From TrEMBL:
Gene that specifies this protein: thiD_2
Disordered: annotated segments: 1-31
Pyridoxamine kinase/Phosphomethylpyrimidine kinase domain segment(s): 30-279
InterPro entries (alphabetical): HMP/HMP-P_kinase_dom, PM/HMP-P_kinase-1, Ribokinase-like
Superkingdom of the organism of origin: Bacteria
Catalytic activity reported: 4-amino-5-hydroxymethyl-2-methylpyrimidine + ATP = 4-amino-2-methyl-5-(phosphooxymethyl)pyrimidine + ADP + H(+); 4-amino-2-methyl-5-(phosphooxymethyl)pyrimidine + ATP = 4-amino-2-methyl-5-(diphosphooxymethyl)pyrimidine + ADP
Signal peptide per UniProt: none
Protein name per Swiss-Prot or TrEMBL: Bifunctional hydroxymethylpyrimidine kinase/phosphomethylpyrimidine kinase
NCBIfam families cross-referenced by the UniProt entry: HMP-P_kinase (TIGR00097)
Amino acid sequence: MGRMHETPGHLRRPAHDTAPPTALTIAGSDSGGSAGMHADLRAFFSCGVHGMTAVTAVTVQNTVGVTGLVEIPPETVAAQIGAVATDIGVDAAKTGVLSSATTIEAVLAACDEHGIGRGRRTPFVVDPVAASRSGEPLLRPDALDALRDEAFPRATLVTPNLDEVRLLTGIDARSRDDLLDAAKAVHDFGPDWVLIKSGHLLDDPKCVDLLFDGTDAIQLPGPRYSTVHTHGAGDVFASAITAALAKGASMPDAVAAGKRFVTRSVEHAYPLGAGVGPVSTFWRVSPRSL
Ligand SMILES: Nc1ncnc2c1ncn2[C@@H]1O[C@H](COP(=O)(O)OP(=O)(O)O)[C@@H](O)[C@H]1O
Ligand SMILES: Cc1ncc(COP(=O)(O)OP(=O)(O)O)c(N)n1
């Protein structure tokens, strides 16, 4: 038998020599690094997918609030989507801040062109971010109709929190019992799936989110941790779901994986600055290790 030749050390192939799945976030930046595309990228990498960005807006933001927002020209947002879709490929995509009706139109046209959306090759998660945690608007008033009437029907999954449910449907959900009506009302706008997030039900001792496909509802139970540091929780949840979809998971499995990820992220949330600190996307690694 011939002698096996060892690969010289300097030519050794990396342990993972095939490319990981890819995920794209179409979202705004947060200079404080807690929410928006910064949180999305951290969650993507922690969940083992290659993260890519189409930046829609730059926010001036820290743990206390948002003091500025500059929109990226819609054609530049669309061009970013085209650049990564045509060269790298997108296994799953999500949205965050979409800021204006013209940006939404440009994003949806680019997604249509590149097979991103409900019933297409690439799953499309629409997180209808309307305002920051501290209440500053992140969406122009004219954009709400475009989000509901144009983006939702193209979404594989829509992930509103309870403030966004109120804004979009007028339903003021006050307890777990109200979540199914909220999910039905959002589902009527046309997405395949709706995930109603329950973080804002502060009197509920648990965080039980609800996934709905128009027929069946699946409860996603989780503990409620006693922390104020939940900045970016919604972004991290939607991104962890998007990462699982990029790996080929079914929607119920992807949302269950996302819920496990965000729950641990809230558990390990940390104080930062003078305001609301971020959920941790790196609870799997020690911050002290080199
Ligand atoms: N204090 C908490 N403890 C555990 N999970 C939480 C807590 N607050 C929010 N979550 C979870 O984080 C995710 C994001 O929820 P939510 O806060 O409602 O959205 P958003 O960040 O978009 O406002 C949900 O899965 C929710 O159940
Ligand atoms: C640039 C930017 N995008 C999104 C948000 C909101 O983040 P989200 O996770 O939906 O909400 P909070 O958990 O921070 O309330 C943001 N603040 N900035």
